[in-house]
Amino acid sequence: MIEKRTQAGDFLYEKIGGEIRTMIETGTLSPGDKLPSVRKLAGQKKVSISTILQAYMALESEKLIEARPQSGYYVSAVSLLRFPEPLEFFPADPPRSVGVADNVMELFRAAESPDIVPLGVNCTMPELISNQKLAKIISRVSRDHSEYLSRYKFHGADPEFARQISIRSYEYGCTLHPEEIIATCGCTEAFNLSLRAVACAGDTIAVESPTYYGILEIIESLSMKAVAICTDPKNGVCLQSLTDTLEENDVKACVLMPNFQNPLGFRMSAERKIKVLDILDDYGVPLIEDDVYGDLHFNGNRPRPFKALDKNGSVLLCSSFSKTLSPGLRIGWVAAGKYSDRVLRLKYLNTMGMPETPQRALAEYLKSGGYDRHLRNLRSCFQRHVCHISQAVYRYFPEGSLVTRPEGGNLLWVRLPETVDSLELYRRALEKNILIAPGPLFSACCLTACIPNNEPCMFRNCLRLSCGSPCDERVESALKTLGQLAKDISTDSGFGTASVKAG
Ligand SMILES: Cc1ncc(COP(=O)(O)O)c(C=O)c1O
Question: Which one of 82, 117, 135 terminates a domain?
Fold first, then answer.
């Protein structure tokens, strides 16, 4: 058969394939979107079915789209692969006192303004997680169990809640006993108690570089020191740097986020997890694992946490439902292995226990089914948001900007050219009601600690963007403005003396 050509001499199937390719590259079509059926598109374009089939097959061989049996053609997840990503290791940093807390408070205060475009704090748009069903169950549990309001309960967790966590944990390779589960006020408290169970003021804690500022804040509040381990944005902590850090420092605990780390979004392989645990075991260092994003994988199965590979109870697994269901419910938990008794005692000293009503309501919700469907929906929304926002960054940010390519979660880490100071960008963006999280917040050596000594801040040309909301017109316009501000800063002389504090 002789294929028809366009006036420009291209084959028709190439032209149609090119149009679809452009739509994928510009973000009009994102991973998971369904393409029109072959028959429908042939009708629309007034071409033969075989022309469309040929166009689709060419896009398929480029891995831009994929055929799903009995369903049609879809934009594939790897369609983002054509964008470069920052691949070099992020540096290690010697032990130091931490100074991030004031700056993080500033960020959260700014995020509360209704006029702000909140790309700086990791909040999910309420429509995605507001759950009428959960609200109804909370009402029912409150009505049926008024006794929960009139008693103290000194157990680790509501037994039904603990049982549900234990059942779910089996699906990702753990065999957590319900008695091992201690309910906490979010993952934040789980992490706080875990840290206090294994270390004291003045002790050194090993963290990833960069790491979630909430972890740094707690280390700071407990007067501990942080030592940053060199981290690969694709694979997680560098094994050699971990060994060197443990060899050279008296590290009392290590804090890692192996599944869709905040802020880099990487997923550590099972092989690397095993090696990390072996190294930590050699030095007798407990591991505090933060797995709040573990359920938010874009493809394949839910990755196993370190805890699933723990041979001797040295892993304290911390998690919560804040990223998947309800940050407002403040329900988290920790399975602390051989440190369980200490964590339980600290929990008792901290708050005596957790309210029973939200735990039981959450347990009823999990038992009733539907959570997995909710997760599936949330994951595909986040995957689309991440894709759209990274495409917008490539469209609007200065040339040479690089964006991570997370395999789950809802965060992007952007590395701008060296000439762009993200603290200055933070200040200028805030004046325009746009909130970003500047890179230095993710390093122990943040701002106040560094500037007086003229010490350069780490990640000064980086920032984190939250993709909890879709790239709608407001977000797109904010990203366009951010890109322009970054370009302005790059061309301005006087390089960065700004503090993260606004005004
Ligand atoms: C890695 C990580 N851990 C913990 C938290 C806080 O979790 P929670 O709200 O359950 O305290 C966050 C919130 O952004 C996070 O990103």
Answer: 82
